[in-house]
Amino acid sequence: MKKITTPLTKELRTKLKAGQEVLLSGTTDTARDEAHKKLTELIRRKKKLPFNLKDAVIYYSGPTPRQQNGLFGSCGPTTSSRMDEFTPVLLGKGLGSMIGKGRRSNRVRDLIKREKAVYFLAIGGAGAYLAKRIKSSGVLAFKALGPEAIYKLEVKDFPLIVGIDSSGRSVYK
User: Fold this and answer.
1) Domain 2-164 in this protein, CATH class
2) Cα(41)–Cα(131) distance, rounded to whole angstroms?
3) Domains of the chain, residue spans
4) Would the pTM count as exceeding 0.85?
5) Pairwise CA distance, residues 121 & 138, whole Å
6) Is 36 one of the catalytic residues?
7) Which of 8, 28, 32, 36 is catalytic?
Protein backbone atom coordinates (compact mmCIF):
# COMPACT_ATOMS: atom_id res chain seq x y z
CA MET A 1 0.00 0.00 0.00
CA LYS A 2 1.25 3.45 -0.92
CA LYS A 3 1.20 6.09 1.82
CA ILE A 4 0.18 9.56 0.64
CA THR A 5 -0.22 12.83 2.52
CA THR A 6 -2.29 15.92 1.78
CA PRO A 7 -2.13 18.25 0.01
CA LEU A 8 -2.52 15.95 -2.99
CA THR A 9 -0.84 18.06 -5.63
CA LYS A 10 -1.37 17.47 -9.34
CA GLU A 11 2.14 15.99 -9.50
CA LEU A 12 1.25 13.40 -6.84
CA ARG A 13 -2.21 12.70 -8.30
CA THR A 14 -0.79 11.89 -11.73
CA LYS A 15 1.36 9.13 -10.19
CA LEU A 16 -1.64 7.24 -8.78
CA LYS A 17 -3.19 4.44 -10.85
CA ALA A 18 -6.72 3.01 -10.91
CA GLY A 19 -6.98 0.03 -8.57
CA GLN A 20 -4.02 1.12 -6.44
CA GLU A 21 -4.49 0.85 -2.67
CA VAL A 22 -3.40 3.87 -0.65
CA LEU A 23 -3.30 5.06 2.95
CA LEU A 24 -4.19 8.75 3.15
CA SER A 25 -2.95 10.98 5.97
CA GLY A 26 -3.56 14.68 6.46
CA THR A 27 -6.70 16.78 6.11
CA THR A 28 -9.89 16.19 4.21
CA ASP A 29 -13.22 17.99 4.27
CA THR A 30 -16.58 16.22 4.34
CA ALA A 31 -19.42 17.36 2.11
CA ARG A 32 -22.65 15.74 1.02
CA ASP A 33 -25.59 16.86 -1.11
CA GLU A 34 -26.73 19.93 0.83
CA ALA A 35 -23.19 21.20 1.39
CA HIS A 36 -22.45 20.74 -2.31
CA LYS A 37 -25.53 22.80 -3.18
CA LYS A 38 -24.35 25.58 -0.88
CA LEU A 39 -20.78 25.49 -2.20
CA THR A 40 -21.85 25.66 -5.85
CA GLU A 41 -24.24 28.50 -5.03
CA LEU A 42 -21.41 30.45 -3.37
CA ILE A 43 -19.25 29.89 -6.46
CA ARG A 44 -22.02 30.98 -8.82
CA ARG A 45 -22.58 34.15 -6.75
CA LYS A 46 -18.79 34.76 -6.65
CA LYS A 47 -18.75 34.62 -2.83
CA LYS A 48 -15.89 33.49 -0.60
CA LEU A 49 -15.74 29.75 0.05
CA PRO A 50 -15.26 28.36 3.59
CA PHE A 51 -12.07 26.59 2.45
CA ASN A 52 -9.65 26.63 -0.47
CA LEU A 53 -10.61 24.07 -3.12
CA LYS A 54 -7.16 24.00 -4.75
CA ASP A 55 -5.83 20.45 -4.32
CA ALA A 56 -8.46 19.84 -1.61
CA VAL A 57 -9.86 16.41 -0.82
CA ILE A 58 -13.62 16.17 -0.28
CA TYR A 59 -14.95 13.08 1.46
CA TYR A 60 -18.58 12.35 0.63
CA SER A 61 -19.63 11.50 4.15
CA GLY A 62 -22.16 12.56 6.75
CA PRO A 63 -20.66 11.48 10.07
CA THR A 64 -22.86 10.16 12.85
CA PRO A 65 -23.13 12.19 16.09
CA ARG A 66 -19.98 12.62 18.12
CA GLN A 67 -19.14 10.17 20.88
CA GLN A 68 -17.80 10.96 24.35
CA ASN A 69 -14.25 11.02 22.97
CA GLY A 70 -15.27 13.92 20.69
CA LEU A 71 -14.97 11.90 17.51
CA PHE A 72 -17.60 10.24 15.36
CA GLY A 73 -19.12 6.83 15.91
CA SER A 74 -19.23 6.22 12.17
CA CYS A 75 -17.90 8.11 9.18
CA GLY A 76 -18.49 6.01 6.08
CA PRO A 77 -18.77 7.06 2.45
CA THR A 78 -22.00 8.01 0.73
CA THR A 79 -22.94 7.29 -2.89
CA SER A 80 -20.81 9.57 -5.04
CA SER A 81 -23.08 9.78 -8.09
CA ARG A 82 -25.41 12.01 -6.06
CA MET A 83 -22.69 14.68 -6.20
CA ASP A 84 -22.11 14.37 -9.98
CA GLU A 85 -24.24 17.42 -10.82
CA PHE A 86 -22.06 19.61 -8.57
CA THR A 87 -18.67 18.09 -9.36
CA PRO A 88 -17.93 20.03 -12.59
CA VAL A 89 -18.15 23.38 -10.78
CA LEU A 90 -15.90 22.21 -7.93
CA LEU A 91 -13.33 20.61 -10.23
CA GLY A 92 -13.26 23.84 -12.21
CA LYS A 93 -12.25 25.65 -9.02
CA GLY A 94 -9.29 23.33 -8.36
CA LEU A 95 -10.76 20.45 -6.33
CA GLY A 96 -8.08 17.76 -6.50
CA SER A 97 -9.65 14.61 -5.10
CA MET A 98 -12.92 13.11 -3.99
CA ILE A 99 -13.64 10.13 -1.74
CA GLY A 100 -16.86 8.16 -1.90
CA LYS A 101 -18.36 4.91 -3.05
CA GLY A 102 -19.76 3.72 -6.35
CA ARG A 103 -19.52 4.67 -9.99
CA ARG A 104 -19.28 8.17 -11.41
CA SER A 105 -20.89 9.41 -14.60
CA ASN A 106 -18.93 9.42 -17.85
CA ARG A 107 -19.00 13.23 -17.75
CA VAL A 108 -17.39 13.31 -14.29
CA ARG A 109 -14.82 10.68 -15.33
CA ASP A 110 -13.90 12.83 -18.36
CA LEU A 111 -13.61 15.94 -16.15
CA ILE A 112 -11.42 14.07 -13.66
CA LYS A 113 -9.11 13.25 -16.58
CA ARG A 114 -9.16 16.82 -17.93
CA GLU A 115 -8.44 18.39 -14.53
CA LYS A 116 -5.93 15.68 -13.49
CA ALA A 117 -7.98 14.96 -10.37
CA VAL A 118 -8.48 11.59 -8.62
CA TYR A 119 -11.56 9.79 -7.31
CA PHE A 120 -10.93 7.46 -4.38
CA LEU A 121 -13.15 4.67 -3.15
CA ALA A 122 -13.72 4.10 0.55
CA ILE A 123 -15.22 0.85 1.69
CA GLY A 124 -18.97 1.10 2.20
CA GLY A 125 -20.31 -0.51 5.37
CA ALA A 126 -17.05 0.13 7.20
CA GLY A 127 -17.93 3.53 8.69
CA ALA A 128 -17.11 2.58 12.29
CA TYR A 129 -13.72 1.22 11.21
CA LEU A 130 -12.98 4.31 9.10
CA ALA A 131 -13.94 6.61 11.99
CA LYS A 132 -11.05 5.11 13.98
CA ARG A 133 -8.68 6.59 11.37
CA ILE A 134 -9.90 10.12 12.17
CA LYS A 135 -7.58 11.81 14.65
CA SER A 136 -9.45 15.11 14.99
CA SER A 137 -12.46 16.88 13.54
CA GLY A 138 -14.36 20.12 13.68
CA VAL A 139 -17.19 21.90 11.90
CA LEU A 140 -15.81 24.02 9.09
CA ALA A 141 -19.01 25.42 7.54
CA PHE A 142 -22.80 25.18 7.46
CA LYS A 143 -23.17 23.98 11.06
CA ALA A 144 -26.99 24.18 10.80
CA LEU A 145 -26.87 21.21 8.40
CA GLY A 146 -25.90 18.89 11.28
CA PRO A 147 -24.29 15.73 9.87
CA GLU A 148 -24.37 17.33 6.40
CA ALA A 149 -22.26 20.27 7.60
CA ILE A 150 -18.74 20.50 6.24
CA TYR A 151 -16.28 19.01 8.72
CA LYS A 152 -12.51 19.30 8.56
CA LEU A 153 -10.99 15.92 9.40
CA GLU A 154 -7.43 15.03 10.25
CA VAL A 155 -6.93 11.42 9.15
CA LYS A 156 -4.09 8.94 9.61
CA ASP A 157 -3.62 5.97 7.28
CA PHE A 158 -7.17 6.22 5.92
CA PRO A 159 -7.52 3.19 3.57
CA LEU A 160 -8.65 3.97 0.02
CA ILE A 161 -8.58 2.55 -3.50
CA VAL A 162 -7.96 4.74 -6.55
CA GLY A 163 -11.31 4.41 -8.35
CA ILE A 164 -10.61 6.80 -11.24
CA ASP A 165 -7.10 8.03 -11.86
CA SER A 166 -5.96 11.29 -13.45
CA SER A 167 -5.79 9.59 -16.87
CA GLY A 168 -9.48 8.67 -16.66
CA ARG A 169 -8.89 4.95 -16.06
CA SER A 170 -11.57 3.47 -13.84
CA VAL A 171 -11.83 0.30 -11.77
CA TYR A 172 -15.38 0.01 -13.10
CA LYS A 173 -14.33 -0.54 -16.74
Assistant:
1) alpha beta
2) 30
3) 2-164
4) yes
5) 23
6) yes
7) 36
